[in-house]
Automatic annotation (TrEMBL):
GO MF terms, alphabetically ordered: hydrolase activity
NodB homology domain mapped to chain residues: 11-200
Pfam families in the record: Polysacc_deac_1 (PF01522)
SUPFAM superfamilies: Glycoside hydrolase/deacetylase (SSF88713)
Keyword tRNA processing recorded: no
Taxonomic path: Bacteria, Bacillati, Actinomycetota, Actinomycetes, Streptosporangiales
Gene3D superfamilies in UniProt: Glycoside hydrolase/deacetylase
The species this protein was found in: Microtetraspora malaysiensis
UniProt-recorded name of the protein: Polysaccharide deacetylase family protein
Entry's EC annotation: 3.-.-.-
Main enzyme class: hydrolase
Keywords, comma-separated and alphabetical: Hydrolase
Length: 206
C-alpha cells in the first residue's frame, strides 16, 4: 500500500560513504564534489575511512570530520576480513584506528564497515570486531555508484527509489571516488527531502 505524504513526514536516512583507495582509477574531484555538496546543503553523514587512504590524503581526511560528519573505520588495508587470521584482523583494524585518530583527531569506534561487505554474516568476524570495540554497519541501499558506467542521474534514481521503499532508518552506501557519486549527490539530497526524508548520522538512528 502506498504511504501518504503525512506518513512519510520526517523519516530518517543515513547516507554513508566508504572513503578508500578506489579499485579503479578514481576521479580526482570525486570526494571534493561530495564534501562540497554536503556542506552546501547542510547534510550530515557517516564516513567509513580506510586507514591507508587517510595516510595518503591527510588534508582531505581532516576535512571529512568538519561539518559534523561521523567517522567510522573501514580497515587499513581493505582486505577481506574473513581471509585474515584473528591476529591479522585485530592488527589491521587497530592500525586503521590509530591512523584515523592521528590524522583526524577522531576515534572511529564503535563504527566499522567490512571491506566488500565480506564478513558481515560471519560470527567469528563480528565477535573479533566486538572485542575491539566495534559494531559492523551494513547497508540496505547500494547506490551502485562503483559501476564503471554509472551516471549521476542513474545513481540518484536508484537511491531515491530504494531508500523511499525502505522507509525510516534506511542506510545508503556510496563511494565518493566516482564522479557519478558527486553528480548524484544534489539530486539525491533534494529528491529525498522532497519525499519527506531527513538526513542523520548512524549514531542518530538508535
Ligand atoms: Zn570499501
Amino acid at each position: 500500500m502506498a504511504k501518504s505524504p503525512r506518513q512519510h513526514a520526517s523519516w530518517r536516512v543515513a547516507l554513508t560513504f566508504d572513503v578508500e583507495h578506489a579499485d579503479r582509477p578514481a576521479h580526482p574531484d570525486g570526494t571534493r564534489l561530495v564534501l562540497d555538496t554536503l556542506a552546501e546543503r547542510d547534510v550530515v553523514t557517516t564516513h567509513f575511512v580506510q586507514g591507508r587512504w587517510a595516510q595518503a590524503h591527510p588534508a582531505l581526511a581532516k576535512e571529512l570530520t568538519r561539518h559534523g560528519h561521523l567517522i567510522g573505520n573501514h580497515s587499513h588495508h581493505h582486505a577481506r576480513m574473513t581471509w585474515l587470521s584473528p591476529q591479522g584482523l585485530a592488527g589491521d583494524v587497530r592500525l586503521a584506528e590509530q591512523t584515523i585518530r592521528r590524522i583526524t583527531g577522531h576515534d572511529p569506534r564503535p563504527w566499522f564497515r567490512c571491506p566488500f561487505g565480506d564478513g558481515t554474516d560471519d560470527p567469528a568476524v563480528l565477535a573479533a570486531l566486538d572485542r575491539l570495540g566495534y559494531q559492523e554497519v551494513s547497508w540496505q541501499v547500494d547506490a551502485l555508484d562503483w559501476r564503471t558506467k554509472a551516471t549521476g542521474p542513474q545513481v540518484a534514481r536508484t537511491v531515491i527509489e530504494q531508500a523511499t521503499a525502505h522507509g525510516d532508518g534506511a542506510v545508503v552506501l556510496f563511494h565518493p571516488w566516482t564522479l557519478a557519486t558527486g553528480r548524484a549527490m544534489p539530486l539525491v539530497i533534494d529528491g529525498l527531502r522532497a519525499a519527506g526524508a531527513r538526513f542523520v548520522r548512524l549514531d542518530e538512528l538508535g
